[in-house]
Design brief:
The protein has one domain: Alpha-Beta Barrel (TIM Barrel), CATH 3.20.20.210. It is built from eleven helices and ten strands. A six-stranded parallel sheet has the order 5-6-7-8-9-10. Strands 1-4 form a two-stranded antiparallel ribbon. Helix 9 links the parallel strand 7 and strand 8. Helix 1 packs antiparallel against helix 2 and helix 5 runs parallel beside helix 8.
């Protein structure tokens, strides 16, 4: 049975300061694993209680145990290592006309050997949160195509002459996680795929894919079919989340979904829910929603997690009605555009505003679809 929730969350939440301090101390050897786990548990409890208090229909554990949303495909892998000078440009600007800020950030890891899994952190996430949650619970997993951003022609080609072989190996790891979660009672899994949003940006198609030996057109076709394979797990509803990067308020991509909608959307056959970023001009118009198969559901990510500014309720409602011109209104839902803490440092937004924005998601949703 397919699940569908109107008032959605995307996944990550701001890590409380006590958790950030504990992680720093733990990594420096200042506290032992047992104490660190107790602190992680406290943060998860707090995240669950906060979400349930806002009135949203489905919750996550806030990804409190992760350093980054992609942790299940980075922190616990063999075959990857930090490579000096392996960086990516992130951007922040308030409007399309603004040149804005740019920052070079170290890419965490690059693939240097055949990848293998040391352990799966998502099992602990689900089992603990399942015992605590009073509302439906979903787990997030990273897209295997995110490994494109860990692929370096200089360092990775010896292990993977064809980067799509890397994606297939990563897909098998993600699929195993999904199958194990299903056995434990998980009925809703979201796959986070910002690399698909980056394919909407001509500059990113060149610098992050073509220049790295990865055909961007092949990413939206063959790559999308590899991604779709992870969602072939019975008994689980799979959602596909697309954004354009989210790192301490910065992003990497710009451009509308029309760059990928005709190819990628139709190949996501095993995904029942699409969660699409639509908080500002970076995501373009709603016209590409025409390409979304009508047997899908769509979660509109209209409310931003990138800044402290609160959206006007009437503006959000207007955006929902605009989207309904291109996709059936009764198959729409609402969420924030992305997580609040895609990386453990979090976005430049307060915990109070985080809660307020989730309350807006719930209140508007429950008034729009009574």
């Amino acid at each position: 049975m397919t699940v569908f929730y109107r008032a959605e969350v995307i996944g990550s939440l701001l890590r409380p300061n006590y958790l950030k301090q504990a992680r720093t101390a733990y990594e420096a050897g200042g506290i032992d694993p047992a104490e660190f786990k107790r602190i992680e548990d406290r943060a998860v409890d707090q995240a669950i209680a906060m979400q349930e208090g806002t009135g949203v229909d489905v919750i996550t554990d806030g990804e409190m145990r992760r350093t980054h949303f992609i942790s299940p495909l980075s922190d616990v892998l063999e075959g990857v290592q930090v490579i000096p000078a392996f960086t990516r440009t992130w951007r922040r600007r308030d409007s399309e006309a603004d040149q804005g800020k740019k920052i070079e950030m170290q890419v965490q890891l690059a693939v240097v050997e055949k990848i293998a899994r040391k352990r799966s952190p998502v099992i602990e996430e689900f089992v603990y949160a399942r015992a605590k949650a009073r509302k439906p619970l979903k787990i997030t997993l990273p897209s295997p195509l995110m490994m494109a951003l860990r692929y370096s022609p200089q360092y990775s080609k010896k292990a993977y002459a064809d980067p799509f072989d890397l994606f297939r190996d990563a897909a098998e790891l993600v699929r195993r996680d999904a199958a194990e979660l299903a056995k434990l009672g998980c009925t809703y899994i979201q796959i986070d795929a910002p690399e698909l949003g980056m394919l909407c940006d001509p500059q990113r198609r060149r610098t992050d894919f073509a220049d790295q030996g990865i055909d961007p057109d092949r990413m939206a076709t063959e790559g999308m079919e590899i991604l779709d394979s992870v969602a072939a797990v019975p008994g689980v509803t799979f959602g596909l989340h697309l954004c354009r990067g989210n790192n301490q308020g910065y992003y990497v991509g710009e451009g509308g979904y029309e760059a990928i909608s005709k190819e990628a959307f139709k190949r996501a056959k095993n995904f029942k829910i699409f969660l699409l970023e639509y908080d500002d001009w970076r995501s373009g118009g709603f016209e590409p929603l025409r390409d979304l198969p009508k047997d899908k559901s769509l979660v509109l990510g209209i409310i931003s997690t990138k800044h402290e500014t609160m959206e006007a309720a009437d503006g959000v409602i207007k955006r929902v009605e605009e989207a309904a011109r291109f996709f059936p209104r009764d198959q729409l839902a609402l969420s924030t555009q992305c997580g609040f803490g895609t990386v453990w440092e979090g976005n430049p937004i307060s915990e109070q505003m985080q809660e307020t924005k989730l309350k807006m998601v719930a209140e508007l949703t429950h008034s729009l679809w009574k």
